[in-house]
User: Fold this.
Amino acid sequence: MDTLQLFDAFVLGLIEGLTEFIPVSSTGHLILAGQLLGFHSTGNTFEVLIQLGAVLAVLSVYFGKLWHLLVTLPSDPKSRRFVTGILLAFLPAAVIGAIAHDFIKGVLFETPMVICVALLIGGFILLAIDRMPLNPRYRDIEEYPLSLCFKIGLIQCLAMIPGTSRSGATIAGALLLGTDKRSAAEFSFFLAMPTMAGAFAYDLYKNWSLLSVDDAATIGIGFVMAFLSALVVVRSLLGFVSKYGFAPFAWWRIAVGAIGIGVILAYR
Assistant:
């Protein structure tokens, strides 16, 4: 096993965990960082499979709430509606992701310019939304109407373009549909669980025969680092967003996107 490749997996796992739940596109950052490091994964599976580490971070932080939902699901209509809302929001990504999987992995993942442009455009959109005088109607994720959940799920599908950001799309969409910033970020956490777990399972199914022992080692290191770094983000993001909003993330996207485009054009 190449020590340098293990180090790259360590760095990329750290990046995944730090960026998965903030609206800057973890996949976009992973692909661009991988290009800089000269890191190549079999079938581009590394970037998808290590996301499960970040999902487990959410599960550990919200274990109490998830357990309460599980226990009360048979008897509490509020719990059933919330779980139904998450599943409805997940449904569009599950269908479109399965249909467009090969195009996304084979074409979009291999086009850095698309990622940089998406980062740039998404940054300006997020900055504009953050400055809008919005009047939130929904502040509790368990009170979100099912129709609202489904609409957020449709908007999440934009994140299949790497650089868009799954959390960025869901948060921005939720804000425009009448939620407050804190609950929008929290709903994005819960929606991440089935979405990323589904992507993990489907990608593993599609590429299982291509993976080797060396791939398992790099994925394992990236997985652990994604889990540890995502723990820090999940525990601190809601408080940060409540205080500072999403402008810092928007400016970061704009900076990374602009630098990336400049580098790509300079080396053409």
